[in-house]
Amino acid sequence: MSDSLPNYPFDRSATLEPPHEWAELQAGCPVAHVRLPSGDTARLLTRYDDVRTVLTDSRFRRGGGDAARVSTTKDGGIFARAGEGTDMREGEGHMRWRRLLSRSFTIKRMEAWRPRVQAMADELVDELVKWGSPANLSAGLGLPLPVRVICALVGAPSADQDKFARWSQVMLTLTRYSQAEVEEAYREFDAYVSALVDERRADPGDDLLSELTQISDSEDGRLSHQELIATVRALLLAGHETTSNMIAVMAAMLLSERERYQAVIDDPELIQGTVEEVLRLDTTLSVIGFPRVATEDADLDGSVVPAGATVIPCRPAANRDPRRFDEPERFDPRRANAAQHLSFGAGAHYCLGQPLARLELQVVLGTLVRRLPTLRLRDGVEDLRLRKGLLSGGLEDVWVTW
After folding, report:
1. Which of 62, 113, 129, 223 could lock 216 by a disulfide, CB 3.0 to 4.6 Å apart?
2. Looking at 75-89, 172-186, 310-324, which range is the least confident one?
């Protein structure tokens, strides 16, 4: 049977547009069997309500080693290893971990970082202007800004950004890297974080890592050493990888139909709504998404998902579901319910860092329209290329001119 199943992720004819299968499955087969790059099979969900149900319903837990393998590596990919060796993955252990971290990522606390993020963005745009047009926006702004921000927040040296980028790519492999390369990346990343922990333990500062180290060393032992290592590694990886790619995607999406960019120049009040529409309409970053495993038989749209089955909640498809969003393909920065998108997930695993990611995207967009009002893509939209072989997706280098 699996030989006749469609391969997922689907191919697409245009870089910034979704594969046509999403809408077709939404309309006629919302719970579809697909074959993953590993060769394992899973059920793909494309409707908003189904995706949100799986993200929020305790009958579906985050997939571990018993889920369908996603990657071609022996371990099945980073999703099978997330929280490995800890009780951070699900249930009370996960909620305990979230409670410890959530106070560091409140909207109020992140807003206090806006002036620092703005200063970093201005400095990087200064460098772009200094070196002149054309420029690689991905390398000159997309990668370094989130790296500098998360390093300042956590307490790691931003000079190590090349290491983060390398380790992150390898750990997020879909088809690009071998199991041996993955194991090496984990060993090096964990050794790096361990050294950082030792430094902060000996000489604590005003940063999240120092705070987490103190929590780990407290009498009640609320964070074990392994949990501390896994937490800092996850923060450094997630804190730059997705936002870095989204900055490039945002620029490409707005400049590919330049009236979108011009609208923000004409009315900066559209910055927040524009960022939400970019997040809703992006189809490039979430290549597969975090698999879930049914803990009991569950009904989704009249289809029974048996206990033990792996489901793939396709958030980008859900974000374009006409049952939730009127004219979902239309870019509308004034869309009233745009922020109901599922790009940051939902429920117990809703992205902790979403206030910071939103802030960074807003700052970048505001800075670009203010500093570079004549910004354009150097090449045609058809020349944009997807990053392939990685779970994080996104675009290859986005070159701009002004």
Report:
1. 223
2. 75-89
